[in-house]
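Listing 4. Sequential folding, example run.
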Amino acid sequence: MASGPYLRRSSLLASLILGVALPVAAPAQPISQAQNIRQAQNVSQVQNVSQVQTISQAQLRAANLARMEAERLNGGLTKYFAGQCMHQRGGANCLIQANEKGFLFRFPGGTPGWEANRRAATVESQILISADGRTIEKVEYNGVPRSQ
């Protein structure tokens, strides 16, 4: 079994690889008020990051659900393909509203290959998905493209 500097190096290496913090000896001096504030800010930032990740996961689910609903309503993938904006992460370019009511997407669609072949969209869909991204709240529109 390794000991001394080899053990410390391997522990440090393992902590870096696994992303685990090593225990640190208690400071000899009391922590200042400025250090307490910095630590509180760091915790706050970590909490905000996790909230952003939750929101983005809900939006990702919502976009997938809205796209799949449009595919179902328009005859399946052999007859219909949603616009590229719905195939990008979270459908961000098709998202027109995100609030406590949910995610509202408006997006074009058409026969498979319509965008690649530079044809106009033949369908427009506007679908509201719940805020958690798991439920279709309402299909507000699914029909001939409306003028913007």
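-- end of first protein; second protein begins --
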Amino acid sequence: MKTLAGPRDKDEILHRLRSVRPESARRWGRMSAHQMVCHLSDSFRMGMGHKPVSHATGLLQRTIVKWIALYLPLRWPGGRLVTRPEIDQELAGTKPGDFAADVAELEALVGLVTAQTPGFDWPPHPIFGRMSAADWLRWGYLHTDHHFRQFGA
């Protein structure tokens, strides 16, 4: 299973990030490639507890849905997932600025997330609830993969 905890998987994600262009066409959804880069940055900020995000969870999401999303070998479907308003670039998410600077910020955030020490207190995920470091790093890979596939990266 791919995860940002694996150096090869992390390198793959960073390589794919560098292939994204502002004009990359989306295959589904409504955000632009530049908005997607900012969305991923906001998501990693959320994962480190630097960006508060409202919760939309229940017992089913914290148990069965979480396990299916993180550990079944299925790709996340395109265009069916609704994001929280705080990480939606058309609502309260970080607005795109300079594309190259925003890509560099996302790359730095991937580095920060993967450098967390074993005692780091990961915040609850807004949908999946409490997650271990392994869960967060698996989620980080799957979430970036989902959006990179959205733009053919």
